[in-house]
């Protein structure tokens, strides 16, 4: 019977990583580090809770996997907490505080995870009081927070999956440049990103005006990034600033396309973003 219990619970190991913070966690961190964090957590809980309850190592591991799976069901895909798993806790969605989000993610879900998992652990207790099991579970979950951070922050840029949605902002900036060119009949004149956004303000959508500046920077995703520090600014082609644009080119005239804004790819992970102006026909690409 015990063997069947162990086999059944181990068969669910692939799903057991779906703990209370799975949704946002899998979006934020490297997949391999997240799996490593879950594996270490399962083992620590088996040791610090299951073994404390007097269970053998195989049974403790099985219970730990089952408890984490139960938490995933309650707080994850089918739980009432699921919508909150995809929330930016600290900072603006366009400019989140990545490090504090990681801390908040682990801390906020430590308590509900501990309580849900105590339902499983209490069924394996022998002499320990039910209240002590709950307190033990809470204490262990809080103690594993720094362990989890140490694992999840191993990569130089650990927050590969959580970045501000700047694609829409960049689309709006490109469209603003197009409208500016049609209106002024020359390229924008400002090379400083902040001044450029000020120059384009009348042509930006109302919803993106306050946040458009973030579209001209790549986000810093270092281990302890606490918000935008303008580390990777857009490149501006100063040679075309204020250059006259022909809105109606001559028939069969060759294109005169020159780049105006450019964000180079970084280490092959981010695609290059570029805004080019055809000075013969007035189109923006």
Put simply, the count of helices is 10
Widest beta sheet: strand line-up: 5-6-7
Q: Helix/strand-derived class?
A: mainly alpha
Overall tally of structural domains: 2
Main β-sheet, in a few words? Answer: 3 strands, antiparallel
Beta fraction of the residues?
5-15%
Unreliable residue runs: 1-23
Helix content: 40-55%
Q: How many strands appear in the DSSP assignment?
A: 7
Distance between the termini: 67 Å
The backbone outline, from C-alpha atoms, is rod-shaped
H/E element order: HHHHHEEHHHHHEEEEE
Overall mean confidence score, pLDDT: 80
Rg, nearest Å: 26 Å
Question: How would the blueprint of this fold be written?
Answer:
Blueprint lengths: L1 H10 L1 H4 L5 H7 L2 H20 L6 H19 L15 E2 L2 E2 L1 H11 L1 H13 L7 H23 L14 H18 L8 H8 L16 E2 L13 E2 L1 E2 L20 E7 L9 E6 L7
Tell me about this structure:
- The protein is mostly helical.
- It has 2 domains: 2-152, no CATH class; 167-278, no CATH class.
- The chain is built from 10 helices and 7 strands.
- It has helices at residues 2-11, 13-16, 22-28, 31-50, 57-75, 98-108, 110-122, 130-152, 167-184, 193-200, and strands at 91-92, 95-96, 217-218, 232-233, 235-236, 257-263, 273-278.
- It has a 3-stranded antiparallel beta sheet with strand order 5-6-7, covered by helices on one side. A two-stranded antiparallel ribbon has the order 1-2.
- α7 packs across α8.
């Amino acid at each position: 019977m015990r063997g069947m219990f162990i086999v059944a619970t181990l068969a669910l190991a692939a799903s057991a990583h779906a703990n209370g913070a799975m949704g946002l966690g899998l979006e934020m961190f490297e997949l391999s580090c997240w799996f490593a964090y879950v594996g270490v957590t399962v083992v620590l809980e088996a040791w610090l809770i299951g073994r404390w309850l007097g269970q053998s190592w195989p049974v403790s591991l099985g219970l730990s996997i089952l408890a984490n799976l139960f938490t995933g069901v309650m707080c994850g895909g089918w739980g009432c907490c699921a919508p909150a798993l995809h929330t930016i806790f600290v900072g603006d969605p366009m400019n989140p505080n990545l490090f504090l989000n990681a801390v908040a993610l682990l801390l906020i879900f430590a308590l509900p995870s501990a309580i849900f998992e105590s339902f499983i652990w209490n069924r394996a207790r022998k002499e320990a009081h039910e209240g002590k099991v709950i307190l033990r579970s809470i204490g262990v979950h809080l103690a594993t927070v720094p362990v989890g951070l140490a694992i999840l922050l191993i990569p130089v840029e650990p927050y590969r999956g959580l970045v501000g949605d700047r694609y829409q902002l960049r689309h709006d900036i490109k469209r603003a440049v197009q409208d500016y060119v049609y209106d002024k009949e020359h390229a924008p004149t400002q090379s400083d990103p902040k001044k450029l956004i000020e120059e384009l303000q009348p042509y930006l959508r109302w919803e993106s005006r306050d946040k458009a500046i973030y579209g001209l920077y790549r986000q810093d995703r270092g281990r302890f990034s606490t918000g935008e520090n303008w580390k990777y600014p857009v490149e501006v082609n100063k040679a075309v600033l204020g250059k006259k644009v022909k809105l109606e080119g001559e028939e069969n005239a060759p294109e005169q396309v020159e780049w105006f804004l450019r964000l180079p790819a970084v280490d092959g992970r981010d695609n290059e973003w570029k805004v080019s102006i055809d000075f013969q026909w007035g189109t923006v690409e």
